[in-house]
């Protein structure tokens, strides 16, 4: 293991997988790297000490111009179903510079995104633009502070080079920190290598890295499927809780660790509409808010297909076993979703009409285009704007029913509000505010709005300051559109 004054402890175990699973390649140096954002909180959390390092040196390190000793950079191979179609992919514009192990022996992939071409770049440039990298930084850090499993963001560097998209944009590199980058698509890649050894090695590696307790189990393959299913159910329920729409739930963008990954065309829903999509290419609504659990199940079926050869030599028996596990998805999801919605409404215990009460609220929100986040804030007395909408007769009737239901809680009103406040954020990275902050950063070199937003998003469940701006909805209302591969 490599050690130095910053505290890097590299231990690059991914290189022990089959050679076909990655390519050794260094970042392409950039012209004039400049530090834009650095996450000191995160660096401390993972036991890295940059206090003696000035901004110029930080820019050199996190642009890849000066790789730390002990790093061994690789691009990972993977495949994936993109909008339902199978494709061979791989890190086309990203490199893992190594696995850093903190003092508590937590292992993190340190990855550069936008670091130049790799053998998996196909015809693209291997680069990334400043706006989308700042956006990933803001949204991934916000997700973390919302308590949702996610990859993190350590730094953003401007490269001093242009990238050509629909217009000429400033180039940038994001440093992403993840508990690993093992995706459903990584297993799909190992499966098509037709070498059962590659698959077995990846499976053993995954167990060792994420679920070591399963190593002793005689049914470890099925156990892995079950645990990944549970992790994904929890993750999707968390997304549904805060109105997050991932936007591109391809199998290469679903991790085995259960962390949210690849912040491309994702966004937060303002007004409640289950069919909301933000991605410019999602014409069919495949990845809409409402479809997220269904797609998670579809992706888990693709994962299960990869595990079949390890479940049983007889494919028919293996399919039967995997089907038994996957069959449970709807029940497990429904149970978790119901629990989560009841937490949002501060409902304790189980009453037969709870689900109906929840559906009635969601239907009212849909019909009246009510803001998803603010409606729950209103119910817990944390939305100060006098919105005429909440004086509407049907809503008042529903509210009366809800108040009567909370009386069956067998607990005080304060307890009920306490629960609500734990599960309903006051602030989310609202699209119009994220866009405004990115405009200042990319067009005027002014990071003040990005930094203000990052600060308020650190404590999303508390009224730490006047949050009214951050609870404001876009006016005039406009359809928000996001893009892939930016
Ligand atoms: P994503 O939409 O970010 O999940 O990316 C899908 C695939 O396209 C991955 O294999 C990426 O590495 C690749 N990709 C996206 N943008 C670029 C780019 N500018 N250069 C090379 N590969 C890219
Ligand atoms: Mg991806």
Bound compounds = adenosine monophosphate, magnesium ion
Structural class: alpha+beta
Number of strands: 12
Shape: globular
Kindly report the average pLDDT value: 96
Q: Tell me about the largest β-sheet.
A: 6 strands, antiparallel
N-to-C order of helices and strands = EEHHEEEEEEHEEHHHEEHHHHHHHHH
Our count of domains comes out at: 3
Tally of helical runs: 15
What's the end-to-end separation, in Å? 36 Å
CA-atom Rg in angstroms: 23 Å
**Helix share of residues?**
40-55%
Spans where pLDDT lies below 50 across 5 or more residues: none
What share of the residues does DSSP label as strand, in percent? 5-15%
Structural features:
alpha+beta, globular, six-stranded antiparallel beta sheet, binds adenosine monophosphate, binds magnesium ion, 486 residues, 15 helices
Task: Explain briefly what this protein structure is.
The protein has helices at 40-45, 55-63, 130-145, 184-192, 196-210, 220-242, 292-311, 315-326, 329-344, 354-367, 372-379, 393-406, 413-423, 431-444, 448-456; strands spanning 22-24, 34-38, 74-76, 79-82, 85-88, 94-101, 107-113, 128-129, 152-164, 168-178, 244-245, 267-268. By secondary structure, the protein is of the alpha+beta class. Adenosine monophosphate (AMP) binds at residues 89-93, 120-121, 124-127, 248, 252-253, 262, 264, 484-485.
């Amino acid at each position: 293991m490599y050690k130095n004054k910053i505290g890097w402890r590299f231990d690059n175990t991914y290189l022990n997988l089959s050679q076909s699973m990655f390519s050794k390649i260094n970042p392409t140096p950039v012209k004039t790297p400049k530090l834009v954002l650095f996450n000191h909180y995160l660096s401390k959390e993972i036991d890295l000490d940059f206090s003696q390092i000035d901004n110029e040196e930080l820019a050199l390190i996190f642009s890849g111009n000066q790789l730390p000793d002990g790093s061994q950079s690789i691009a990972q191979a993977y495949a994936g179903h993109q909008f339902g179609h199978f494709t061979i992919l791989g890190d086309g514009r990203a490199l893992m510079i190594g696995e850093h192990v903190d003092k508590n022996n937590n292992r993190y992939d340190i990855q550069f995104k936008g670091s130049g071409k790799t053998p998996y770049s196909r015809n693209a440039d291997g680069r990334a633009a400043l706006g989308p990298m700042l956006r990933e930084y803001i949204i991934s850090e916000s997700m973390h502070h919302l308590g949702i499993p996610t990859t993190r963001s350590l730094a953003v560097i401007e490269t001093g080079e242009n990238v050509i998209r629909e217009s000429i944009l400033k180039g940038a590199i994001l440093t992403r920190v993840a508990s690993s980058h093992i995706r459903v698509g990584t297993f799909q890649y190992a499966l098509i290598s037709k070498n059962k050894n590659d698959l077995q090695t990846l499976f053993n590696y995954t167990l060792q890295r994420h679920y070591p307790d399963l190593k002793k189990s005689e049914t470890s393959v099925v156990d892995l499927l079950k645990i990944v299913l549970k992790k994904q159910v929890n993750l999707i329920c968390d997304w549904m809780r805060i109105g997050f729409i991932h936007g591109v739930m391809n199998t290469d963008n679903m991790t085995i660790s259960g962390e949210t990954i690849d912040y491309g065309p994702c966004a937060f829903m303002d007004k409640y509409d289950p069919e909301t999509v933000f991605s410019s290419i999602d014409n069919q609504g495949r990845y809409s808010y409402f479809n997220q659990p269904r797609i998670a199940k579809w992706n888990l079926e693709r994962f299960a297909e990869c595990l079949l050869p390890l479940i049983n030599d007889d494919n028919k028996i293996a399919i039967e076993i995997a089907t038994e596990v996957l069959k449970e998805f709807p029940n497990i999801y429904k149970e978790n979703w119901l629990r989560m919605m009841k937490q949002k409404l501060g409902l304790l215990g189980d009453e037969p009409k709870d689900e109906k009460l929840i559906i009635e609220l969601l239907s009212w929100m849909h019909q009246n285009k009510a803001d998803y986040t603010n409606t729950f804030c209103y119910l817990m007395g944390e939305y100060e704007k006098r919105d005429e909408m909440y004086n509407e007769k049907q809503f008042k009737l529903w509210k009366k029913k809800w108040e009567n239901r909370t009386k069956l809680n067998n607990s005080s009103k304060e307890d009920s509000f306490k629960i609500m406040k734990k599960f309903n954020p006051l602030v989310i990275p609202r699209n119009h505010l994220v866009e405004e902050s990115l405009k200042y950063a990319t067009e005027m070199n002014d990071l003040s709005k990005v930094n203000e937003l990052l600060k308020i998003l650190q404590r999303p469940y508390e009224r730490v300051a006047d949050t009214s701006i951050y609870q404001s909805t876009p006016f005039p209302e406009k359809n928000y559109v996001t893009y892939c591969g930016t």
